[in-house]
């Protein structure tokens, strides 16, 4: 099974959508909440080059954000 990591904020609707898709697909993921955690936010930015959430990685490969995850799913990449 692939290792999925998702950087999130609690109030982010895109984070909720991305997590819902992964849950619906029965794909386990590690959620890394960056709310109030400067170190995790910096780690996310260093890994992805972006400061927005969600930021998603599968097997340490950068996927992107919520829309990117849905595009990956649309072409069968999550199956």
TrEMBL record:
Keyword DNA repair: no
Molecular-function GO term, any one: electron transfer activity
Biological process annotations from GO: cell redox homeostasis
Residues in Glutaredoxin domain copies: 4-63
Origin superkingdom: Bacteria
Assigned keywords, A-Z: Cytoplasm, Disulfide bond, Electron transport, Redox-active center, Transport
Gene3D superfamilies with a match to the protein in the record: Glutaredoxin
Pfam families attached to this UniProt entry: Glutaredoxin
Protein family: Belongs to the glutaredoxin family.
PANTHER family listed in its UniProt record: GLUTAREDOXIN, GLUTAREDOXIN-LIKE PROTEIN NRDH
Function description: Has a glutathione-disulfide oxidoreductase activity in the presence of NADPH and glutathione reductase. Reduces low molecular weight disulfides and proteins.
Name used for this protein in its record: Glutaredoxin
Species of provenance: Candidatus Palibaumannia cicadellinicola
Phylogenetic lineage: Bacteria, Pseudomonadati, Pseudomonadota, Gammaproteobacteria, Candidatus Palibaumannia
């Amino acid at each position: 099974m692939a290792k999925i990591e998702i950087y999130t904020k609690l109030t982010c609707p895109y984070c909720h959508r991305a997590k819902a898709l992964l849950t619906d697909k029965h794909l386990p993921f590690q959620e890394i909440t960056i709310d109030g955690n400067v170190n995790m936010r910096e780690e996310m930015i260093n890994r992805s080059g972006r400061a927005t959430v969600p930021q998603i990685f599968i097997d340490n490969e950068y996927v992107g954000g919520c829309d990117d995850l849905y595009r990956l799913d649309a072409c069968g990449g999550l199956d």
